[in-house]
Amino acid sequence: MANILVTGSKGQLGTELRKTGFTLLDEVFYTDLPELDITDEQAVWNFVREKEIDTIVNCAAYTAVEQAEEEKERAAFINTTAVANLAKVAAAEDCLLIHISTDYVFDGTATVPYTEKDRPCPQNVYGMTKWEGERAIQKSGCLAVILRTAWLYSANGNNFVKTILRLASEKGEVSVVADQIGTPTYAADLAKVIVEIVAENELENTVEIYHYTNEGACSWYEFAREIVAQSGIECKVHPLTTAQYPTKAKRPAYAILDKTKIKRRYRIEIPLWQEALGRCLTALSETDKG
Questions:
Q1: Is residue 36 part of a domain?
Q2: Ranges for the RmlD-like substrate binding domain (predicted)?
């Protein structure tokens, strides 16, 4: 039995965690603003002590990659300062902290999948603030699992899948970057892994870092083509280069994460990204019908 605090519960991953659920013996507190402001250290102390929390799952994050270039302080406040608050309280109260990080901590210059031992070198504000959040956890001395993921999407919130579906329906033609490679991740699959980690609650080291995405790899262009194909929408998808689609934030050209460590540790089978996408599209279809 555990008393679990889930932050950022209204986001994509937090919503999927609520759907997946933990064990019947666990008491779970799903929070977001205004229930708990994790940038307020005293509020975190009060909540954890009052509810006798022993496990914190931090799904809260500033994820607007482009906007972060203009809102550096706000991004750092949520992705670094708030994480430091959680880690400090977790260390003092002997809680397990599970924190979600990103492939954007890497520079994207690799030619083989990044392992947990590769040194981060973020190339944009979002990636840097997430990396600083990781470092705050490591400095705190708390018991923690850092889960790096990538290209997260779900049937909830705003994400690439829903954007492509909308543009495909409205315009019948989209152009997407084809020279940035990574792996889409269905939030529902990541949620199941988090639940499994919480259930086992046994770490070999004070801080463990794992990589988790769905299996396989593709470009954003290939991802968009698969979304259109599986949805059955009549739409032409055109490839673009990064140079043809300039953005404020520099994006990794190659951001594939090696998942060997988490597969061995938790003996999990990870679904292919195409199959996971199909399940998400089905969930979206059922939501539209409902």
A1: yes
A2: 3-284
